[in-house]
Write a structure and sequence with these properties.
With about 375 residues, the chain is an alpha+beta fold. The protein is about 30% helix and about 15% strand. Strand 2 (about 265-270) and strand 3 (about 275-280) form a beta hairpin. Helix 2 (about 95-105) crosses helix 3 (about 110-120), helix 2 (about 95-105) runs parallel beside helix 5 (about 165-185) and helix 3 crosses helix 8 (about 220-230).
């Protein structure tokens, strides 16, 4: 079951700077004639050579001399630092809630640590290692996936190539390792920083850490590479400290349906009706015609009406969470059971599932809008519904 609304994008085009005009060349003089009184000197404008050729030659000579001395142009024209393809600002927005939710399972692991690990393991590539057998962005082998992999996004299958499943599995593995090395340090078997010991256990196993009594020497390269990438992802942790991740992982919202079966997840997709690829701004849950739809949290109804794309649509404002506005939406309803301005408690009836608007069949399109941005609804929902 699917739906969407058009994506509006703006393109900011900046005109290139005009090149600076060349500096004025030297003035030429005519030699004095044989007459008793020298003729008055006449000033002439710069010739074509002075205007067009000389500045270019001067610049070329200057650059050549600079290269001869330094062998590098970077000091002459400083380059902007390259944040790398997996810098925090370049992490797919749909991954962020999962990074935060995965890290919430323990105190040692942070979203930035998971992101740095993924960067080191795969560079955020979702391919398959032909030689190593590692799959997906978290580079899971089949044996490790059988241990840690689950269908966390509820799309019907667990796969290491599914970024949400892979992120959550990596978080489970790291938190399990963090628990083990914490116990080892508590009883005095090992010493060291818990993050370092956790990364070492990931790289070499807890047995190697136990035997060494600290971070084994052969795990140092992995630790150094991961920790060098941590600064790239500090923004992920900053958002968490403001409440985004912690609140989402804590299950701020209850399920809007009695049973949740994902038929189309949040993220980029090809719309089945329009054929256009764009952001699917929410999650589609399977729901028979007329199934009761409930408010996911207490709030005030700010919209309840028929729309062209979403059909019957309800928007509930839940106030602020960690200082940022939280709203939920419910679309394609067959009937509206609330009106604008009405205050509703969590689990209050707000409508009945249907297929109004741009839809292929009965279902519920459910969205979470946090701080004005669409975000994956699933990490916001309580595990028990």
């Amino acid at each position: 079951m699917t739906d969407t609304r058009p994506d509006e994008r703006e393109t900011d085009e900046r005109a290139a700077d005009e090149p600076a005009a060349p500096e004025q060349g030297r003035h030429e003089q005519e030699a004095a004639g044989p007459s008793e009184r020298p003729p008055k000197r006449v000033r002439r404008g710069p010739g074509p050579f002075t205007l067009l050729v000389l500045p270019g030659l001067t610049a070329l000579v200057g650059v050549s001399c600079f290269l001869a001395l330094t062998g590098d142009l970077s000091a002459l024209w400083p380059q902007e630092p390259d944040p790398g393809p997996a810098a925090a600002t370049h992490v797919d927005d749909s991954y962020l809630p999962w990074l935060r939710k995965a890290a919430s399972a323990c105190t040692v692991v942070t979203p930035s640590l998971l992101a740095a690990q993924i960067d080191q393991l795969s560079g955020w590539s979702n391919g398959t290692g032909r030689l190593t057998g590692e799959k997906g962005i978290a580079a899971f082998t089949d044996p490790r996936w059988r241990t840690w992999g689950k269908d966390d996004d509820g799309n019907g299958h667990a796969s290491p190539r599914d970024p949400a499943d892979a992120i959550m599995a990596l978080g489970r593995q790291d938190c399990s390792l963090a628990g083990k090395v914490t116990d080892l340090r508590t009883d005095g078997t090992v010493n060291g920083d818990l993050v370092d010991l956790t990364l070492a256990a990931y790289a070499e196993g807890t047995a190697a850490v136990t035997e060494a009594g600290r971070v084994p020497a052969r795990a140092r390269v992995y630790l150094t590479e991961v920790k060098a990438l941590l600064p790239r992802y500090k923004e992920v942790d900053q958002d968490t400290s403001e409440g985004t991740g912690a609140e989402a992982a804590g299950g701020v919202l209850v399920a809007p349906l009695s049973a949740l079966t994902v038929t189309s997840p949040f993220g980029s997709r090809v719309h089945p009706l329009t054929g256009v690829t764009n952001l699917h701004t929410g999650v589609d849950f399977a729901a028979a015609q007329g199934t009761q739809v409930s408010a996911a949290a207490q709030g005030r109804v700010v919209f309840a009406a028929m729309t062209k794309a979403y059909g019957n649509r309800v928007v509930v404002d839940h106030g602020t969470v960690a200082g940022k506005r939280l709203e939920t939406t419910y679309s394609h309803l067959s009937a509206l059971q609330v009106s604008v301005g009405q205050t509703v408690p969590a689990r209050a009836p707000i409508g009945a599932a249907g297929s109004t608007g741009l839809s292929t069949g009965p279902h519920l399109h459910f969205e979470v809008i946090y701080d004005g941005r669409y975000t994956d609804p699933l990490p916001w929902l309580s595990p028990g519904g």
